[in-house]
Amino acid sequence: MTAGDDHEATRKMQFLFQLRQKGVTDTRVLQAMEKVDRGAFVRGHFAGRAYEDMPLPISCGQTISQPSVVGLMTQALDVQPRDTVLEIGTGSGYQAAVLSQLARRVYTIDRHRSLTRAAEVLFTGMGLNNITVLTGDGSFGLPDQAPFDRILVTAAAEDPPGPLLAQLKPGGVMVVPVGQSDTVQSLIRVTRTEDGLDYDELLPVRFVPLVEGVAEE
Ligand code: SAH
Fold first, then answer.
1. Is residue 181 annotated as part of the catalytic site, yes or no?
2. Residues enclosing ligand 1, CB less than 6 A?
3. Residue 61 has what pLDDT?
4. What CA–CA distance (Å, rounded) separates 53 from 18?
5. 211 lies in a domain?
């Protein structure tokens, strides 16, 4: 073992420790997050902080979420090995890569073509071939592939978007940050039951807003 390996092992342990400390306790989620190197998804100035528990800026004025929030959202989604998952807000691609370890197939959509392109290159390089990346307005979901077992929205909406609720299978779960402002938002879990929809409020969060339409770049 070299000094570099040692450093790497310590860093990994610290990363996992921070996740556990914030309440990410699901073994499968921790294993998925141990496998996916967050460092690969953060470029430039902030690359050295990729293993700290903080959100970081990525291109197009967007952010890669805080690792513990990725963990808590993934845990709340309760992904099963045979699930088809839809993610709205590809961003860096990190959350989709974590989901890809837990699900059969992941569809991820972003309104910025440059982000979806970059994410696709990363997924190919990592051999994550169960992820399909699309550019578009994710508020409308993906009617062609619907319904989904799980839907994760990683940008904040005023309310859970109707088309996404309509694309949730019976027994399906959607996790979405909702709020009227950029500063006060709650993470909500919606479960489709036989009688309708059940809502749970999980924790306060802060996400960039869900914006209408496809972006220019
Ligand atoms: N999940 C990402 C972080 C998401 S940041 C990660 O792991 O890095 C939120 C993302 O939502 C941004 O990239 C933004 O472009 C995207 N977004 C906002 N509104 C959208 C919409 N209507 N449709 C698709 N993507 C949207």
1. no
2. 62-65, 88-89, 91-92, 94-95, 109-112, 115, 137-139, 154-155, 208, 210-211
3. 92
4. 7
5. no
pLDDT number for residue 5: 81
Helices (H) and strands (E) counted in the chain, each on its own, are 6, 9
- 212: CB partners within 8 A, 6+ apart: 137, 139
Q: What CATH number does residue 151 fall under? A: 3.40.50.150
Instruction: Determine, yes or no, domain membership for 210.
Output: no
Domain containing 67: what range? 3-205
Which residues, in sequence order, are bridge partners of residue 148?
168
The tally of domains found in the chain comes to 1
User: Which pLDDT score is estimated for 1?
Assistant: 61
Q: List average pLDDT for each run of 10 residues in the chain, which is 217 residues long.
A: 79 94 98 96 92 94 96 98 98 98 98 98 98 98 98 96 97 95 90 96 94 92
Among 43, 54, 62, 117, say which to mutate for ligand 1: greatest number of ligand atoms within 8 Å of CB.
62
Is 213 within a domain? no
Q: How far is CA 81 from the centre of its chain?
A: 17
In a domain, 214, yes or no: no
Q: Structure tokens of 99?
A: 């989901």
